[in-house]
Design a protein that fits this description.
Blueprint: E1 2-4, H1 7-15, E2 21-26, H2 32-44, E3 47-52, H3 72-81, E4 86-88, H4 92-95, H5 113-117, H6 121-136, E5 140-144, H7 148-161, E6 166-170, H8 190-195, H9 197-211, H10 217-229, E7 234-242, E8 256-265, E9 268-277
Parallel strand pairs: 1-4, 2-3, 2-5, 3-4, 5-6
Antiparallel strand pairs: 7-8, 8-9
Helix pairs in contact: 6-7, 9-10
The structure holds pantoate.
């Protein structure tokens, strides 16, 4: 496994690579969710690359950039055992040199959900992913369904900017009690960790209601809100039942909808979603 830091080293390495390349972009602190992406990339490509970069421009001034979990040694051990070919850990100064002023904005899709809650976040994500796609020129890009809006935005930018890349969205990986895996889960204390199952519980109840014929989006939102309200450690930041492609809020769910929530548990904000779908 080649562990690289500079862009010139990365370019030199890629020059001699033959066969297809799958890229898994990460901010490190890897868990089973990331591993599912790496494993999918390993199965479908001759070469697998992983980037580890805690991207400062996708964090707002009041957000958790400084305390975002970082664990490079453990990450590298995991990636080594998954037979990853290249790990790129670029430096902030090389990604964003002095005077940096070039950004990518996916206009409409960035206005909702996490984009509305975290001004500038989606611009930061779109910018770094564009830079990674330019640096690696991969054949396939692997993302997780847990960050549904991010995946939607990246698919849009790949189409809009004409990157010849397949974007593959892998299912959310959950703990045994249903909590979606996230690097931020490590910041929950034991009581908060127990409380955090309320995210999946509320989404599951919405899914059951939809399966039983509830198609009124506002009733589905109320159902989720009521489940979360009962948990004393939880504060609901938003609940959304939206069109899966445009992310616009729906009045009624006809065949498919994205049901997303953001919930603050203690001081940690967690997001999760499910797709409501006619079976
Ligand atoms: O999902 C993440 O870990 C990040 O948003 C990404 C895609 C690596 C961009 O920094």
């Amino acid at each position: 496994m080649n562990i690289l830091t500079s862009l010139s080293e990365l370019r030199a390495n890629l020059k001699y690579m033959s066969g297809s390349l799958g890229l898994v972009p990460t901010m490190g602190s890897l868990h089973e969710g990331h591993l599912s992406l790496v494993k999918a990339a390993r199965m479908q490509n001759d070469n697998v690359a992983v980037s580890i970069f805690v991207n400062p421009i996708q964090f707002g001034p009041e957000e958790d950039l400084d305390i975002y979990p970082r664990n490079h040694d453990n990450d590298l051990d995991i990636l080594q055992s998954e037979k990853v070919d290249i790990v790129w850990i670029p430096d902030v100064k090389e990604m964003y040199p002095d005077g940096y002023q070039t950004y990518v904005t996916v206009e409409k899709l960035s206005r909702y959900l996490e984009g509305a809650r975290r001004p500038g976040h989606m611009r930061g994500v779109a910018t770094i992913v564009t830079k990674l796609l330019i640096a690696f020129a991969p054949d396939r890009l692997y993302l997780g369904q847990k960050d549904a809006q991010q995946s939607c935005i990246i698919k849009r930018l790949v189409a809009d900017l004409g990157f010849a890349i397949d974007v593959l969205i892998c299912p959310t990986v959950r703990d045994i009690d249903g909590l979606a895996l996230s690097s931020r889960n490590s910041r929950l204390n034991p009581d908060e960790r127990k409380a955090a199952i309320v995210l999946y519980k509320s989404l599951s109840e919405a899914q059951t209601a939809f399966a039983n014929g509830e198609t009124d989006a506002s009733r589905l939102r109320t159902l989720i809100t009521d489940v979360i309200r009962i948990e004393k450690f939880a504060k609901l930041l938003y609940v959304s039942v939206s069109d899966i492609n445009s992310l616009k809020e729906l009045h009624y769910v006809s065949d498919r909808a994205l049901c997303s929530i953001a919930v603050k548990i203690g001081s940690v904000v967690l997001i999760d979603n499910i797709v409501l779908e006619d079976s």
